[in-house]
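Why does residue order matter? Because the sequence determines the fold. Keep that principle in mind as you read this record.
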Amino acid sequence: MSSADELDLLDYYIKELDLLRREGKDFAQRFPKIASRLDFRESESLDPHTERLIESVAFLTARVHRDIDREYSQIASNMLSTLCPSLLQPVPSLTIAQFQPDKKSGRLTSPLRIPMNSVLSTKALSGEICKFRTVWDLDIIPLEITSINIDEQDHIIIKLKLIQGVTLSELSLDKITFHLTGDWRMVSAIYETVASRVKSISVRDFRNKNIKLESNSIRLKGFNEDEMALPQPAGSHQAYALLQEYFSFPRKFQFFTIERIKMSNFEGDQLIIDIDVGALSGQVKKISRENLMVNCVPIINLFPKMSEPIKTNDYRYEELLVADQVSEASTEIHSVLSVTASGPHSKQSKIIPEFSTAESHIQVDDSTEGGVYWSSRRQRSLRKDITGSDIFLSFINQEHNEVRPDASVIYANLLCTNRKLAQQIPQKANFECEGISTSFLVQCLYEPSRQTEPPFASQTIWRLSSLLTLNHCSLVTGETGIKQLRQMLSLFASNNIKDLDQIRGLLNLQAKGVTSRFNNEAWRGFCRGVNVTIDLNPDAFVGSSMILFSKVLAHFFSLYTTINSFVSLSVTSNGETLIQIPAMSGRQEFI
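Structure:
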């Protein structure tokens, strides 16, 4: 038994011993003729044999009590894994990587696609390999920013130049994605300007050939389904993952794309983007080329891995699932994707379905191990020199009784993290991109964020009860709307002061039912929705952006709303309207 287990059992033992002595004394005083031996003096029985029995019973009941309490946590974990699996998983470290094309390498006349989930690897300070993967598709373009300034009309002027000897007319490109970087005040000011104040955009070359774009040509990144960093199991609610990602790594949302640029319409090797934003704040007027970067993408410390095999001849009721026997201290299981069984007499491997999936109890085909299901349990790692969590795998039938799979070897397909190893990676560390032959310098722009541990034991019960309570309540209506919204946000926020300040910065919430036409086409008719107005305290957003927070809330509301409905959001601060976000249903603008 580990020292942590011993301390846990000791707490239960002391409680049971105190209960037996206290109630034994009361019982002896009430029935002295038959229970006088239970009358204690100075917390101990006068009879040593009685004392031994009491201590033995306390020890046994303490073990039973502890195991029952653990079962409650396991039931809550199983339910929560169905409702919101991401709440039970660690949130891996995230950072931003920049790909810098070699100016002396081959000519890129079209964007080079780095697919989503491409693996990047680097060495931590300890010398161990740490693996990340890209969050979304990255199109590398042979462009560099030469200058950014403000002209006399308060327009933001971005000048770009092609590298590798390529000209604009040769370049097959219709969009450019920028990442905001630098001091948080500057980043927040630029983000708020780009998100809410753009009136028009014009693009021109050195011959002043000019193309005007509408303000909606700018798209903020990080909110779409294909731009989510955390894995999305079937049936999971994307609104929850959106909140987790925002509170874990808000830099993931500090991207914007200028679309509908046809580079082939221009000549030469220089491009000028002119953004009209009306009156500029004093902070944005200090913008420079260090505040915008191209060829950047968020990366997350997640990588696929095949588990070490589980041999059924050594199988116990519950088996520790090991991702990497050699590097256990730096490899933690994030999630189990599938479990497969194979044997010497079977022609092909068979998939063992997960017990919690409803379809596994309805249909069993030739590719599945009939009548056998797997179930997992996560707990805080009690092993020496290993941080984070461990996952235990068990095999059961439909009645939840233990069964032994008819296979000689079982293995699992996993998604893993490097535990806290990613936090050792310094800023500007170089990465290698697997499967890419072209020469690039790949660097991380920031130190990776801290990995957030999943909840354990009683924490899962609290999260489950909170989620179930909030799921059948409206977050934006009624007198308790603001309280319920804060409680929902706190489920997904970390416990750092910055996150808690933002949640407390929600001062007021008002909701009003509205009716609007769905789209501009008359035949689509009308739809009922909700217009939400929230008031924010600017002092609570020092070091962050109220506009970004509002955008995240707007997307959360739209994903959380009921079918055939919509939500529009207005945000005020200090009595002034900060931003009005159009009505949305799901991920699309509704009106």
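The longest strand covers residues 506-517.
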